């Protein structure tokens, strides 16, 4: 399960992205990992895989929130 190891490594990596391009790349990597794990989950129905996908989704959402920035107030 090399894919699960990749996902766990991504999860434990420091989430410090100094540039916007780094954030975009991290969000894309998280998305590709989630989609790949989803294909495996469809076949196995393993709860551990679902838990990993949920955690990666939270990380991805945090990165995307940071990309969008603060809303402008009028």
What does this structure look like?
There is one protein chain. The protein has 74 residues and is an all-alpha fold. 78% of the residues lie in helices and 0% in strands. It contains 3 helices and no strands. The radius of gyration is 14 Å and the shape is elongated.
Q: Which keywords apply here?
A:
single chain; 74 residues; mainly alpha; 3 helices
The best one-word shape is: elongated
H/E order of the elements?
HHH
Average pLDDT over all residues:
89
Question: How far is the N terminus from the C terminus?
Answer: 50 Å
Beta-strand content estimate: under 5%
Number of DSSP helical runs: 3
- Spatial extent as radius of gyration: 14 Å
Major pleated sheet: none
How much helix is in the residues? over 70%
The SS-based structural class is mainly alpha
Short recap of the structure:
With 74 residues, this protein is an all-alpha fold.
Q: Helix and strand layout, with pairings?
A:
Layout lengths: L1 H11 L7 H25 L2 H22 L6
């Amino acid at each position: 399960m090399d894919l699960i190891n990749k996902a766990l490594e991504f999860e434990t990596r420091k989430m410090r992205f100094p540039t916007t391009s780094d954030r975009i790349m991290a969000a894309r990597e998280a998305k590709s990992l989630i989609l790949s794990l989803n294909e495996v989950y469809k076949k196995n129905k393993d709860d551990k895989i679902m838990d990993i996908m949920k955690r990666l989704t939270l990380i991805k959402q945090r990165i995307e929130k940071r990309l969008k920035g603060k809303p402008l107030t009028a």
